[in-house]
Amino acid sequence: MILLANEIVKFDDLPSIRRGYLEGLKYYYSIIQKNEQSFVEFTDLYASIIQFGYELARINQDESGASYDTLAAINKEFYPDGKMHPAFIALKLEVALDGISECLMYLKKKVLS
Prior knowledge:
Helices cover 65% and strands 5% of the residues. The chain is mainly alpha-helical. It has a two-stranded antiparallel ribbon with strand order 1-2. α1 packs antiparallel against α2 and α2 packs antiparallel against α3 (65-77). The longest helix has 20 residues, at 43-62.
């Protein structure tokens, strides 16, 4: 049990670590999605952003490990040659993309292993 704001909450009632990182992914993706139309001219990148949202929705339904791997693979497409795609930098979305990468890293490291 844990004491939160003068309430006793059982650990079973707290959100899971997986759910927390999934919510983080959804939050950071929503920031990028708000700028989705700015990516239209970058055809491959735009398709990857759309695919990322599709896979994120799939995870939300069944939380399958395969979709986490797919998200990680798509995330690599956001970093051509190991560097953040210039479109994310131009739109000042570095923090959102870094947040996605961090959530995916922790999901792979802590939750899926």
